[in-house]
Specification:
The chain has helices at about 1-35, 40-75, 75-85, 90-110, 115-145, 160, 165-190, 200-230, 235-240, 245-270, 275-305, and strands at about 325, 330-335. The protein is mainly α and about 325 residues long. The chain has a two-stranded antiparallel ribbon with strand order 1-2. α8 runs antiparallel to α10 (about 245-270).
C-alpha cells in the first residue's frame, strides 16, 4: 500500500511540477516575446499562444498539486502536520490570494496583449514575479524542513526560513527548470499548426527556444552541485552510495539529463525536425519524473532522522522545546510543548 501511494505521489507531483514549470517559464518567455516587433509572428501569434499554454498550466497544475498534498498526508500524516506548522496560517491564506492575483494579471495581459501593449506587459511582470516569488519559496521551505528535525521552540520568521542554502538552491533549481520547460514549449509551438514549422522565422524561433532550454539545463549543473553540498549528510550519503536504490535512480536521472541536453543541442544548432522536438519533450518529461522520484525516496529515507512524532519518539533537541503540531480540517495550528 505504501509503495503504491509513493508511486501515485511521484506521478501526481510530476504532473504538478510540469504544469507549474510551464506556468512560470512560459509566462517569463512570453514577456520576452511581447517585446518583439508588432508586425512579427513572434509577437502576433506565438506570444499569445505561449501565454495561453502557460495560463492553462497554472490552472490545471493546481489540481495535481492538491492531490499530491493529499497523498503526502495519506503516506506520512505526522510529517505533513509538523512541516505545515512551520509557516503561519496567514501564509496559506495569502497563497490563495496571490494565486488569484497572478491569474488575474495573466488574463488581463492576454486580453490587452496588443491593444494596451505596455500596460499589459507591466501586468505580466507583476504576475510572473508574484508567482515566482511566493510559490517556489513556500514549497521549497516545506520540502527542505520535511527532512530536518524541528529544533526550535516556535517557527522563525518566513524570511529567516528563506535564508537557508538548501532552500535557495531548490528555488533557483525550480526557476531554471521552468525556463527550460518554457524554452521547450517555445520550440514546439510552431509545430502546432500545419505549415508553420518550415517558415524561416519560425525555424529561428524554434532554435532560440531550444537554446534557451539548453542554457537553463546547463546552468542547473552548478546549482545541483551547490544543492548536493547543502543537503544534510544522511540525504547526501543516500544519493552517493549509502542507499543503492536511490543512488541508481539518481545516476539514471543524471543520464537522462545528459540525453536531454544532447536533444536540445541538436535542436539548437540545426533545423529542428518534428521528430526531434517530440523526442526532447519526451526526455524532458522523463527527466522530471526521475528527479521527482529521487526527491520522494530521499524524503522517505530522511524521515527517521527527522521524526518528531506527536506522542512518539522524538529527535533530541538542543534548542529548547520541540514543536508539536495538530492538523485541523481547515487549517494547521501549532503549539509549543
Amino acid at each position: 500500500m505504501a509503495e503504491a501511494l509513493g508511486i501515485a505521489e511521484i506521478l501526481v507531483t510530476t504532473l504538478h511540477l510540469l504544469a507549474m514549470n510551464a506556468a512560470v517559464g512560459g509566462t517569463a518567455l512570453a514577456l520576452w516575446l511581447h517585446l518583439q516587433p508588432r508586425d512579427g509572428e513572434a509577437f502576433a501569434r506565438f506570444g499569445p499562444r505561449l501565454l495561453r499554454v502557460a495560463c492553462a498550466g497554472l490552472y490545471v497544475g493546481t489540481i495535481p498539486g492538491f492531490a499530491a498534498v493529499w497523498l503526502w498526508w495519506l503516506d506520512a500524516p505526522t510529517e505533513l502536520e509538523r512541516v505545515a506548522a512551520i509557516l503561519p496560517e496567514s501564509r496559506y491564506y495569502f497563497a490563495a490570494a496571490e494565486l488569484v492575483f497572478s491569474a488575474a494579471c495573466f488574463e488581463a495581459w492576454r486580453h490587452w496583449w496588443s491593444r494596451r501593449r505596455w500596460a499589459a506587459w507591466l501586468l505580466g511582470i507583476a504576475g510572473v514575479t508574484n508567482l515566482a516569488y511566493h510559490f517556489p519559496t513556500m514549497f521549497a521551505v516545506l520540502s527542505v524542513y520535511a527532512g530536518r528535525p524541528l529544533l526550535f521552540s516556535q517557527p522563525p520568521a518566513y524570511l529567516t526560513l528563506l535564508n537557508d542554502a538548501e532552500v535557495l538552491a531548490r528555488v533557483v533549481h525550480f526557476l531554471l527548470a521552468s525556463v527550460a520547460v518554457g524554452g521547450a514549449l517555445l520550440c514546439a509551438l510552431p509545430e502546432s499548426v500545419a505549415g508553420e514549422a518550415r517558415h524561416e522565422p519560425n525555424v529561428r524561433l524554434r532554435r532560440r527556444g531550444a537554446q534557451i532550454a539548453l542554457a537553463a539545463t546547463l546552468a542547473q549543473w552548478p546549482i545541483g552541485i551547490a544543492l548536493l553540498v547543502a543537503l544534510p549528510e544522511v540525504v547526501r550519503g543516500a544519493l552517493l552510495g549509502d542507499d543503492a536504490r536511490i543512488t541508481v535512480l539518481f545516476v539514471v536521472s543524471l543520464a537522462a539529463v545528459v540525453v536531454l541536453m544532447h536533444r536540445l543541442a541538436t535542436a539548437s544548432f540545426g533545423e529542428p525536425a518534428p521528430r526531434q522536438v517530440r523526442s526532447l519533450l519526451i526526455w524532458l518529461g522523463v527527466t522530471i519524473v526521475l528527479m521527482t522520484a529521487v526527491r520522494y525516496y530521499v524524503r522517505a529515507t530522511s524521515r527517521p532522522a527527522a521524526a518528531v512524532a506527536v506522542g512518539g519518539s522524538r529527535a533530541p533537541s538542543v534548542a529548547g522545546p520541540v514543536l508539536r503540531v495538530s492538523l485541523r480540517p481547515t487549517f494547521v495550528r501549532f503549539a509549543c510543548r
